[in-house]
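Hey L., structure's done. Input below.
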Amino acid sequence: MFLDKYFNKNEGNINVSPQQASNFAKKVAGDFNPIHDEDAKRFCVPGDLLFALVLNNYGLSQTMNFTFSGMVGDGVDLVFPDAGNGSFTISDSNGKDYLSIEHSGETSTDPELIQNLTRHYVEFSGQTFPHILVPLMAEHKVMINPERPLVIYESMTINMDRLDIKNPELALANSTFDVNGKRGSVCLEFNLTSGDEIVGTGKKKMVLSGLREFNQEIIDQLVNNYAARKQTYSS
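Output:
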């Protein structure tokens, strides 16, 4: 599967190197958040890659809830347990929890469905900044810290009406931003479609910290810097 070059197996456990994480973020998700750079001081593995690894290992269930409880750094060996009776948790070899999953309904292990859904989801997710977040921040007159732009996965949910499909695509249905002082919570609702039919729905929730008063000039510079990073990488 296309994910094979983005993780390693170590005595049955899984780990992701900074280079693999960075390559996945940039090449697959189109995500140029500096926290996924190889040399980032606060480096972490993209939540989208963890999501992809879960589908790769366990398949796609009709209903899946993902709750993120920790940032996976360099050198972390992740233990992928048996799927369990409706829920399981991804932890490291020392017992620290990073991701809890609840699942129900039918499950598909069709590699074509899983690969296509994974690609479309992470491409959709990778466009969150600047295309979705910047208009939301402007509307609510707050912005992230431009020096340390921290946006962290909180949770995500997928609800599939049916699994007898091959190439579901994603489209944003709604977005909300709840601000509480210097912290904010963004919720993105999306539809999964097959042709003209909606075959599922989902939600992605993120936490934004270090919020401050919105400044258009600073945001424009942040967006320009982000675009420059992307252009430099592509070149």
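The mean pLDDT is 94. Helices lie at 18-28, 47-58, 111-126, 128-140, 216-234.

-- N.
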